[in-house]
UniProtKB/TrEMBL annotation:
This is Histidinol-phosphate aminotransferase. PANTHER family: HISTIDINOL-PHOSPHATE AMINOTRANSFERASE (PTHR42885:SF2), HISTIDINOL-PHOSPHATE AMINOTRANSFERASE-RELATED (PTHR42885). NCBIfam families: hisC. One of its GO terms (biological process) is L-histidine biosynthetic process. Pathway: Amino-acid biosynthesis; L-histidine biosynthesis; L-histidine from 5-phospho-alpha-D-ribose 1-diphosphate: step 7/9. GO terms for molecular function: histidinol-phosphate transaminase activity; pyridoxal phosphate binding. The modification N6-(pyridoxal phosphate)lysine is found at K217. Homodimer. It catalyses: L-histidinol phosphate + 2-oxoglutarate = 3-(imidazol-4-yl)-2-oxopropyl phosphate + L-glutamate. Residues 34-354 form the Aminotransferase class I/classII large domain.
Length: 367
């Protein structure tokens, strides 16, 4: 680092490393031969139309067509919704609006999505932890001990990377416990794979919940960078104070509106059910291997499993052009790998490479 950078760089930033996103870990591997099953993206690339007529103008901060369509889809009022650059920006806006740097903290429940802690750290906001129990249920008693110590409680349901959804009664207990002291942020990035468990229809009953949504997963638009925060109007109005003036580029607004149209939603439903079918096939096939233990649940578009020789399997798959994600560094997930459900052809190839791996492994052991 140059002397000037060392002199000026914020203390809390010095210790940080750039986030190891799934994409960054394999950057440069972007040729068409690769099968990308590492970032919980959709395998389907849907076509969209773009109208360049308004590209000379700044876009609306909150494009009305997108806000109206998503409010309709989620069954909420338009003043209970904020659109942002992915759900990731929603996380950051909540932290920036509701936590004072160097003073306040957030609570996370690991193993879980990495960006809550990273966003907090870049904002010089503290991170407290209430680990999930062995079965990945919330540890409600431990969570409750943080009352008065945290401003935001991040709860991911369905949870990434465990695929488990949070018990509604337990979550309600947490929401009520923090009613006058913290906002409970429910991350529903994968809710289309578990739609019975959404909290969107309870928004009017709780002033201290915020729900995160995204077009990156089931909607197959990770490249669009478009996400939503759902909450009662006072929380949304607070977030409007910290969001950039033009966060949603015009082409993004156009594509998001098409994805949320009637035809877009019909397509969404078909693709979600295809992914669910493929997920069941993958689970069934993986269960046949004594070396593999499925971990967590299947409420999202990925499968988590434990494998004694996870490094060998991971290396074998990556060498054969199949990119998956190592989750073994996460709390209580030793030897765990996560595989995103791909399209039928990708999943077939994945299973064939896994089969090669274990066949060769047992023949080397016998030799
Ligand atoms: C992928 C993911 C996000 C990020 O969504 P973007 O809209 O792409 O920023 C947020 N939360 C969880 C749990 C995720 O898995």
């Amino acid at each position: 680092m140059s002397n000037l950078v060392t002199l000026l760089l914020n203390e809390n930033i010095k210790a940080l490393k750039p986030y190891e996103s799934a994409r960054r870990l394999f950057s440069g591997a972007g040729n068409k031969e690769q099968i990308w099953l590492n970032a919980n993206e959709s395998p389907f690339a849907n076509p969209y139309d773009i109208d360049a007529e308004r590209f000379n103008r700044y876009p609306d901060c909150q494009p009305p067509a997108v806000i109206e369509a998503y409010a309709d889809y989620a069954g909420i009022a338009t003043d209970q919704l904020l659109v942002s650059r992915g759900a990731d920006e929603g996380i950051e806006l909540l932290i920036r609006a509701f936590c004072t740097p160097g003073k306040d903290s957030v609570l996370i429940c690991p193993p879980t999505y990495g960006m809550y802690a990273i966003s907090a750290e870049t904002c010089d906001v503290g991170v407290e932890r209430a680990p999930l129990k062995a079965d990945f249920a919330l540890d409600v008693d431990v969570i409750k001990t943080f009352k008065g110590k945290v401003n935001l409680v991040f709860i991911c349901s369905p949870n990434n990377p465990t695929g488990t959804s949070v018990n509604k009664k337990q979550l309600l207990e947490v929401i009520e416990h923090f009613a006058d002291s913290a906002i409970v942020v429910i991350d529903e990035a994968y809710i289309e794979f578990d739609d019975d468990n959404t909290w969107a229809n309870a928004l009017n009953n709780y002033a201290n919940i915020a729900i995160l949504r995204t077009l990156s997963k089931a909607f197959a638009l990770a490249g669009l960078r478009c996400g939503f925060t759902l909450a009662q109007a006072p929380i949304i109005q607070a977030l409007m104070k910290v969001i950039a003036p033009y966060p949603i580029p015009e082409p993004v607004a156009q594509i998001a509106a098409q994805a949320l149209s009637h035809d877009g939603l019909v397509n969404l439903e078909q693709q979600v059910s295809l992914i669910n079918q493929e997920k069941a096939l993958l689970q069934h096939a993986l269960k046949q291997y004594p070396e593999i233990e499925l971990v967590g649940d299947d409420k999202a578009n990925f499968i988590l499993f434990r494998c004694g020789n996870k490094s060998g399997l991971m290396t074998h798959l990556v060498a054969n052009g199949i990119l998956i994600r190592d989750q073994s560094k996460q709390l209580n997930l030793d030897n765990c790998l996560r595989i995103t459900v791909g399209n039928p052809q990708q999943n077939k190839q994945l299973l064939s490479k896994i089969s090669h791996f274990f066949t060769n492994q047992s023949s080397t052991q016998e030799a």
